[in-house]
Design brief:
Elements: H1 3-8, H2 10-14, E1 20-22, H3 29-32, E2 46-49, H4 53-65, E3 70-73, E4 89-92, E5 99-102, E6 107-111, H5 116-123, E7 128-129, H6 140-145, H7 153-156, E8 163-169, E9 175-179, H8 184-189, E10 199-206, E11 208-209, E12 213-220, H9 225-238, E13 243-251, E14 266-274, H10 278-284, H11 286-289, E15 295-301, H12 303-306, E16 317-322, H13 330-338, E17 353-361, E18 366-374
Parallel strand pairs: 2-4, 3-4
Antiparallel strand pairs: 1-2, 5-6, 6-10, 7-11, 8-9, 8-10, 12-14, 12-15, 13-14, 13-17, 16-18, 17-18
Helix pairs in contact: 9-13
């Protein structure tokens, strides 16, 4: 499909289109094709920023009729780059980010372009929440369709476990609603099956009562890793469902709660989150608090604020990979901790730095190695 052929249909697409249509050369083009991961640099032939379901239908039919590769951009990171299609059509849902809460039914319906921040800030005033990503910039759509693990998935289940209904536009351009009662096989596939079943324009999720939560960020010298991680593993094996958390090697930030000797240096961090007040959290986490950590930040806060604690800015070069384990034996712990020595620090003025940051999260202790190339 040539550029001229695509452009020939623009007038037809624009007719009645409520959102914005962006093509190469437009002032907004470069900003519209920029995603969270700076490693991804693709030039779509057409970006349609949809304002509603009717726009999505028109865009899908336009792309289908012209044989264009279609990529769907939700509200979040798009780290793997699937939100952009080189020379193709990008259906950008970010304008469709409304979140509507039914506090009686304890449900929330969000647009396909909503982030966890849109959802969490809408539900917070009602003392309600659902499983979300561990940062507020996560897109609800891609997160939920991929399964979705968060700080309190031990208590509330995965995001897809809380999925009640989905509205989507099929590849033929038809609007379909899927739930346990409507198109149940499609609804089953959307529980972790990814985004290849259509363009999801809205999701309805179950909510749970959740008051103030407590976050505990504890720091150790990196050499303590094997001992601390064994203790964390044993602690999580018997911890109540109200507890979530993770362990990571990180560069100590210049914060008052970080010991001076760890600022700018490799440190071991343990984040424990608790669905309840600080006093209860301290009692529950006592086995970890007795290990002799070097620094701490312990605070009670609204859940929506917890979700923002680890937000990363866009524009870094990211590569993420993961391994899923159903147990975490000593041998795995030792290998995991040994990876901390792989971290490379390079001054920004000397060029890009490769930062290898192992961390462990999830109800089954999921080791995740994050490689982030910093500009």
């Amino acid at each position: 499909m040539t550029t001229q052929t695509v452009e020939a249909g623009f007038d037809e697409l624009r007719m009645g289109f409520a959102g914005e249509i962006i093509v190469p050369g437009d002032p907004a083009y470069d900003a519209a094709r920029t995603i969270f991961n700076a490693m991804i640099d693709r030039r779509p032939a057409l970006i349609v920023q949809c304002a509603g379901v009717a726009d999505v239908v028109r865009a899908v039919r336009f792309g289908r009729e012209r044989g264009l590769e279609i990529a769907v951009r939700g509200g979040g990171h798009g780290v793997a780059g699937r939100a952009l299609a080189e020379g193709g059509l990008v259906i950008d849902l970010r304008r469709m980010n409304a979140a509507t809460v039914d506090p009686v039914a304890r449900t929330v319906t969000v647009g396909g372009g909503a982030t966890m921040s849109h959802l969490d800030r809408a539900t917070q005033p009602f003392g309600l929440a659902t499983t979300g990503g561990r940062v507020s910039t996560t897109g609800v759509g891609g997160f939920t369709l991929g399964g979705g693990g968060g700080w309190f998935d031990r208590k509330f289940g995965l995001a897809c476990d809380n999925l009640l209904a989905v509205e989507l536009v099929t590849a033929e351009g038809h609007v379909v609603r899927a739930s346990e009662d409507e198109h149940p096989e499609l609804f089953w596939a959307l529980h972790g099956g990814g985004g290849n079943f259509g363009v999801v324009t809205s999701l309805t999720l179950r909510l749970h009562a959740l008051g103030p939560v407590t976050a505990m960020l504890l720091f150790w010298d990196p050499e303590a890793g094997p001992t601390v991680l064994r203790a964390y593993r044993d602690f999580m094996a018997v911890a109540p469902d109200e507890v979530g958390g993770g362990v990571l090697y990180m560069t100590g930030p210049p914060e008052p709660f970080v010991p001076e000797h760890l600022v700018g240096r490799l440190a071991l961090g343990v984040l424990v989150v608790y669905a309840g007040p600080e006093a209860e959290a301290r009692d529950v986490a006592a086995p970890l608090l007795r290990l002799g950590h070097a620094g701490e930040m312990i605070a009670e806060m609204p859940y929506a604020d917890l979700q923002c604690m680890l937000d990363d800015p866009p524009g870094h070069r990211n590569y993420w990979s993961a391994e899923y384990l159903d147990s975490f034996p000593d041998e795995a712990i030792d290998r995991f901790c040994a990876r901390a020595d792989d971290e490379v620090e390079v001054d920004g003025s000397a060029g890009p730095a490769l930062e290898v940051r192992p961390h462990v999260t999830g109800p089954l202790l999921r080791p995740l190695v994050v490689r982030r190339v910093l500009p």
